[in-house]
Amino acid sequence: MARTRAYRNGVLEAEDFPPEELSEYLRDTSATVWLDLCAPAAEDLTVVAEELGLHRLAVEDAVSEHQRSKLDRYDTHSFLTAYGVRLDEETGVLADDEVDAFITGHALVTVRKSDQFDIEAVVGRWNSASELAKSGVGFLVHGLLDYIVDGYFEAVQSLDEEIEALEDTVFEDKVDARAMQRRSLRLRKSLVKLRRVVLPMREVVNSLMRRDLGVVDDTMAPYFQDVYDHVLRASEWTESLRDLVTTIRETQLTIQGNRLNVIMKKLTGWAAIIAVPTAITGFYGQNVPYPGFGSWWGFAVSTAAILVIAGALYLLFKRRDWL
Predict the structure, then answer these.
(1) H-helix or E-strand containing 30?
(2) Could you report the per-residue pLDDT of 27-54, keeping only the tens digit for each?
(3) pTM, whole model, 2 decimals?
């Protein structure tokens, strides 16, 4: 499936026309066209590359997957790689959707690796800001990047809420330690993944704003600056959340260690108390004569010794908060 649009002098003139008609619109320098391809075959990209004069290396990058977010510059166009993100709040797993874009003087070609990337949301942003369409390709690129960066904010905000909920459970008396560990590791993994796609976007947006590239004009410059600020905020937010997850994990381990120490202290105290009657009864259970052997007062002395010494140890440990 291919989506197309054509603007002329900032006005939407045609939509969903055959890709073969791109060259007809591009003959007019006042026209700006957009072509979207979802999971195209190599042959499809080859046809587009011949139509727009795209570099062979850029076409190879568009076919291959798991590229780093970047902006490559060629003689006649630029090649952009970015990632949209989606967070599953139930599991805390972050999914990313790669989208590539060829940026020429009068055309934007987007290549999505899957239909999970919501291109309709991007089109909706173009429709809501149609008064900026006179800026040509810069207007189209801004709508694409603005949607992607807003997705970063939604993901990091959801992660922040999940981490706050995780933080509240740290000091609860009854905590499922295994489930908490699994949840914290998933959130940290999602934050690392989000950081991997957010950090390079600072360089990407900054490069697009350069005047010598010719993508951003004076009208779109403030809008790209706003996107750049959002990328910086998302990047800083991601870094702080990653440190917070690490702190929560360390706090949990510290609390578990302290609880174990308290348990061991109590067990040691009771073991010391139990050792007293064990020692006394063991002494009086010898098979040799001893003071009080065979008389009632020997039993009375041993019983009194057990009660007095064990009671004294109990009171001592209780006063020192060992029990």
Answers:
(1) none
(2) 888 899 999 998 888 777 888 888 888 8
(3) 0.78
Residue 205 pLDDT level (bands cut at 50, 70, 90): very high
**Residue type at position 122:** V
Confirm if 145 and 207 have CB atoms less than 8 A apart. Answer: no
d(CA 288, CA 65) in angstroms, rounded, equals 87
Tokens of 97: 């959707």
Residue with tokens 């499809």: 44
Pair (241, 264) in one structural domain: no
DSSP state letters, 203-229: HHHHHHT-GGG----TTTHHHHHHHHH
Give the domain CATH number at 249.
3.30.460.20
Strands 107-112 and 31-38, how do they pair? parallel
Amino acid at 185: L
In this structure, what token pair is assigned to residue 147? Answer: 């949607």
Tokens of 67: 């590229």
CATH number of the domain that 296 lies in?
1.20.58
For the chain, the residue count is 323
Per the listing, tokens 């905020």 go with: 233
Segments in the chain forming alpha helices (H): 22-26, 42-52, 56-63, 119-128, 137-168, 177-208, 221-284, 296-319
Q: What single letter denotes the amino acid at residue 258?
A: N
Q: Can you give the residue range of the structural domain that contains 72?
A: 2-256
Q: Per the structure block, which two tokens stand in for 250?
A: 């360390």
Given strand 31-38, what is the order of strands in its sheet? 11-15, 2-8, 31-38, 107-112, 93-103, 78-88, 70-73
